[in-house]
Amino acid sequence: MKIRLEGTHFIYLEYPFEHIGPGVLNPIAATDIQEYLPNRKPMELVTKTQEVLFIREEDTPAWIAWGNSMGIPSSNRLDLWALLNEPFLDTVFSQEKQEQSFARLAENGLDRKEVLGIRQKVQSQMLMYNTVLWEWVHLGHYDVLLSRKKYSLQRLSQSFYQWSMGIGLRNRV
């Protein structure tokens, strides 16, 4: 996800997902970015066409400085994918914590039945992915896409990519 900042736009020199919407990548103008979410790992950008892009950790400080200079707003919206991925972390959550997560997801339009369905859909790829990674703090949207690309028998398709975007952007209305 290496980037280069150039005046009023930036360019991805490499990007791991080829399913980006048409016309989204290279160059990306500051005016095409709706907001950036610095609390995500890796940092996320939301385009005005409602697509999530990722900025690698090494590029985050420079991108934030550039984004601020371009007047791009930041947001600390709830990370729905992080809550959805909690069962796949290398840790154990109390029943109370699990119920709090279900409640926060419900506040953002994801009822328990849908949450369980989403988790079931990504379970095998996320478990395989985290068997290699051993992450115990955070698995987000990027991890869902990367795990689908690298650790799933069902490869990352355009429909899965768009489905994941729809979930990741659910609370951005």
Secondary-structure map:
Elements: E1 3-6, E2 9-12, E3 28-29, E4 33-37, E5 43-47, E6 52-55, H1 60-69, H2 80-84, H3 95-107, H4 112-133, H5 141-151, H6 158-168
Antiparallel strand pairs: 1-2, 2-3, 4-5, 5-6
Helix pairs in contact: 4-5
Task: Write up this protein.
- The chain has 173 residues and is an alpha+beta fold.
- Helices cover 42% and strands 14% of the residues.
- The strands form two sheets. A three-stranded antiparallel β-sheet has the order 1-2-3, with helices on one face. It has a three-stranded antiparallel β-sheet with strand order 4-5-6, covered by helices on one side.
- A hairpin with a 2-residue loop joins strand 1 and strand 2 (9-12).
- Helix 4 (112-133) packs across helix 5 (141-151).
- The longest helix is centred in the last third of the chain and has 22 residues, at 112-133.
- It is globular.
- The mean pLDDT is 90.
Give a quick set of tags describing it:
173 residues, alpha+beta, three-stranded antiparallel beta sheet, 6 helices, 42% helix
Secondary structure: helix percent: 40-55%
Q: Helix/strand-derived class?
A: alpha+beta
**Overall pLDDT confidence:** 90
For the secondary structure, the number of strands is 6
The best one-word shape is globular
Number of helices: 6
Poorly predicted regions: none
Strand order of the largest sheet: 1-2-3
Sheet with the most strands, sense and barrel status: 3 strands, antiparallel
N-to-C span = 27 Å
Q: How would you spell out the order of helices and strands?
A: EEEEEEHHHHHH
Question: Which percent band covers the strand fraction?
Answer: 5-15%
